[in-house]
Task: structure prediction
Amino acid sequence: MDFNLTGMTNEQPASGEKPVKVLVIGSGPAGFAAALYAARANLDPLVLTGLEFGGQASLTFAIENYPGFPDGVGGSELAQLFQKQAEKFGAQVEFDTAVEVDLSRRPFRVKTYNATYLADSLIVSTGAASRHLDVPGEKELIGRGVSYCATCDGWFFREKDVVVVGGGDSALEEGLFLTRYAKSVTIVHRRDQLRAGAVLQERAEANPKVKFIWNAVVTEVIGKDAVKAVCLKDLTIGKTWEHPTDGLFVFIGHTPNTQLFRGQLDLDDKGYIKVDSLQRTNVPGVFAAGEVADPHFRQVITSAGMGAAAAMEANHFLDNH
Ligand SMILES: Cc1cc2nc3c(=O)[nH]c(=O)nc-3n(C[C@H](O)[C@H](O)[C@H](O)COP(=O)(O)OP(=O)(O)OC[C@H]3O[C@@H](n4cnc5c(N)ncnc54)[C@H](O)[C@@H]3O)c2cc1C
Result:
């Protein structure tokens, strides 16, 4: 194999392998912002959407904290707008998923279900996925009362009683959303105070449908074909009891989608991709943006900002190579 002065191989693509200047893995706010910036830099980016078009943001009913939308915007509507804007400048969007990557040399090889791409630079924006409780009954009752998305499933719980697990922004936001449908929303939190922002806390406390059970965890989900109750354990006195409910919504955080990159990109102890202030990973030419590299902010705007930065740095990298 020949190497040229830039360190890139002179290998010719095998038939069926598609060369791309910038390959963006992920179609959340980070991925689409990266695609927009790369497209406007004439880098002809290609976006792999993965299974969740629009990313986590597309699951949510209303986003009220993304600038430019004073009346809020639906998550899936925002995703479609992101796509439209990126495509307008030449980004290509493929409804496909990366299943294998080889970052050991450039161009980077990314296999999907339908193709193999040879990418001169790569922007990883695979985001994060909801964390499960991992208690008996939870997995068996997913879709039959256990949910990780109020926007998707809230409608099924009209005039029902539901339990929400978690104490952060997502738990309160989604819990408040559920009050539009449910008769009652009981928030179970393992501590005696919430992590959520003050405005959300005030809204939840003021809502007559919202109740709280403090210092408690769910230890089992009970039901055969549908959720009937959850077993709760009081962490201060060890007491356990059955709490009847029609649904269980779990909002206890996220795990970064980095399995694909293990052993090739440096990850932190929680599995997030390590990046420097310019969104660069340990592999020159590979950038990471959004929640896949951000355990801290986890917002649409910060993820989109990182996507834009990653694309600008990819442009800079390609200019120099
Ligand atoms: C219920 C809920 C409500 C929220 N509400 C708000 C809000 O009101 N305001 C706000 O600012 N933030 C909100 N957030 C957070 C916000 O949605 C995220 O911070 C943001 O979506 C992260 O963007 P991202 O692009 O980094 O990743 P994600 O949105 O997680 O997108 C990841 C993308 O990667 C793709 N992908 C994963 N693996 C692969 C693969 N192997 N190949 C190809 N593609 C792949 C997925 O399909 C997806 O398109 C909310 C989150 C949730 C869950």
Observations:
- The two ends are 19 Å apart (CA to CA).
- The chain has a mean pLDDT of 92.
- The helical segments are 29-40, 75-88, 150-153, 169-178, 198-206, 300-320.
- The pocket of flavin-adenine dinucleotide is lined by residues 25-31, 48-52, 55-57, 59-60, 63, 65, 97-98, 125-128, 170, 173-174, 257, 260, 290-292, 298-301, 303 (CB under 6 Å).
